[in-house]
């Protein structure tokens, strides 16, 4: 068993224990004082939190939805030994395993579908001198994304504030990022859960992403790392990308704990955790995240174990193709089977070969 698979197995056992424990309360966004930049929450579109819809590209550039609760969807990134994106694979090149049982791939596509994204930026006191560079990188990511993407801005310290709700307007997103207090602690886990719930209830697109930018360890949340991962997986929720600005204390206890948390959140959801050596690298990382999001495979399969049986399902996705050498695949490590939240794959995805 590889080191990464071993870590995933241990976390799966931990999540199984957490599964029987209810969260003390689902963290929500705090309310800003009157006159602040906080945007009101939108009304939830019908069925978008229930997993009854999947994206379908129309000929006029619009996207509609279809119903299915038995098909599991994986968003996967494939890179070669030179860390280059591989975008030419077919369904025959992939093997997907659920709880170590080989599954039959029912559909596959490789397309730049719109994304709903939450951008979560640490607003604690230690971020005061970093926010200008971080804000520029976040906006550059938005500009490099699909024009039909939507994003919201969360600034978090010991509480999380929704300072701009879903928008594709760069000016509004910049305004949301400009709400800087740089004070208080770091309630990262609570912010992630609140953002994942907001995506589940209000996102326009099934493909969902959270980007976290922080420089420290969570010290203010009412929830734990395991509960946070469980909540995201229970929602069949977003891919988490993390940028840890931990270079001020690379070997300190807080830095190690923060790195572990960000790595776990990203690994378990199919994202990447980045740990730049200084602020100069943040903008390039934002561009890499945008490219990663826009060049993913969408793979669907009907699990041999019915969704109705529930439980945690570990996922492994492998890829091999002649002439491409060793390929590395990133996708979520697993999910909690729940008929009401299992998303389906786009109907315009190419059917898999028999």
CATH class membership of the largest domain: Alpha Beta
Largest sheet: 6 strands, mixed
Class derived from helix and strand content: alpha+beta
Number of domains: 2
Q: Rg from C-alpha positions?
A: 19 Å
What is the rounded distance between the termini? 30 Å
The CATH topology of the largest domain corresponds to Rossmann fold
Mean pLDDT: 83
Strand order of the largest sheet: 9-8-7-10-11-12
Question: What is the CATH architecture annotation of the largest domain?
Answer: 3-Layer(aba) Sandwich
- Uncertain segments: 17-21, 34-68, 344-350
Count of DSSP-assigned helices: 7
Strand and helix order: HEEEEEEEHEEHHEHEHEHEEEEE
CATH-assigned homologous superfamily of the largest domain = von Willebrand factor, type A domain
Q: Which percent range describes the beta-strand content?
A: 15-25%
- Write down how many β-strands occur, each being a DSSP E stretch of 2 or more residues: 17
Dominant shape: globular
Helix content: 25-40%
Structure description:
The chain has 354 residues and is of the alpha+beta class. It has two domains: 68-111 and 296-351; 113-294, Rossmann fold (3-Layer(aba) Sandwich). Helices cover 26% and strands 25% of the residues. The protein is built from seven helices and 17 strands. The strands form four sheets. A six-stranded mixed sheet has the order 9-8-7-10-11-12, sandwiched between helices. A five-stranded antiparallel sheet has the order 15-3-13-6-17, with no helix packed on it. A hairpin with a 5-residue loop joins β1 (54-57) and β2 (63-66). α1 (3-18) crosses α5 (225-234), α2 runs antiparallel to α3 and α2 runs parallel beside α7. The longest helix has 17 residues, at 253-269. The radius of gyration is 19 Å and the shape is globular. The two termini are 30 Å apart. Mean pLDDT is 83; it is low at 17-21, 34-68 and 344-350.
């Amino acid at each position: 068993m590889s080191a990464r698979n071993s870590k995933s197995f241990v976390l799966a056992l931990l999540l199984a224990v957490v599964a029987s424990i209810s969260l003390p309360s689902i963290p929500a966004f705090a309310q800003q004082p009157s006159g602040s930049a906080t945007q009101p929450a939108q009304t939830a579109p019908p069925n978008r939190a229930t997993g009854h819809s999947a994206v379908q590209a129309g000929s006029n550039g619009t996207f509609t939805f279809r119903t299915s609760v038995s098909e599991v969807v994986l968003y996967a990134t494939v890179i070669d030994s030179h860390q280059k994106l591989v975008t030419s694979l077919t369904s025959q090149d992939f093997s997907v395993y659920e709880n170590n049982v080989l599954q039959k791939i029912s559909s596959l596509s490789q397309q730049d579908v719109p994304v709903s994204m939450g951008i979560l930026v640490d607003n604690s006191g230690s971020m005061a001198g970093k926010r200008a560079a971080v804000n520029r990188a976040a906006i550059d990511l938005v500009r490099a994304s699909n024009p039909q993407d939507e994003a919201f801005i969360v600034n978090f310290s010991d509480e999380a504030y929704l300072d701009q709700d879903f928008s594709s307007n760069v000016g509004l997103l910049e305004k949301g990022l400009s709400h800087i207090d740089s004070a208080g602690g770091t309630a990262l886990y609570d912010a992630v859960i609140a953002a994942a719930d907001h995506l589940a209830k209000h996102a326009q697109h099934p493909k969902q992403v959270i980007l976290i930018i922080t420089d420290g360890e969570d010290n203010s949340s009412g929830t734990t790392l395991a509960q946070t991962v469980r909540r995201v997986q229970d929602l069949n929720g977003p891919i988490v990308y993390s940028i840890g600005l931990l270079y001020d204390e690379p070997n300190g206890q807080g830095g190690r704990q923060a790195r572990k948390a960000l790595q776990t959140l990203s690994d378990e959801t199919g994202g990447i955790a980045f740990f730049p050596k200084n602020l100069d690298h943040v903008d390039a990382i934002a561009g890499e995240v945008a490219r990663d999001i826009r060049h993913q495979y969408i793979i669907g399969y009907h699990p041999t174990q019915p969704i109705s049986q529930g439980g945690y399902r570990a996922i492994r996705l492998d890829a091999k193709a002649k002439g491409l050498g060793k390929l590395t695949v990133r996708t979520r490590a697993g999910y909690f089977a729940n008929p009401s939240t299992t998303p389906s794959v786009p109907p315009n995805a190419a059917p898999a070969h028999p």
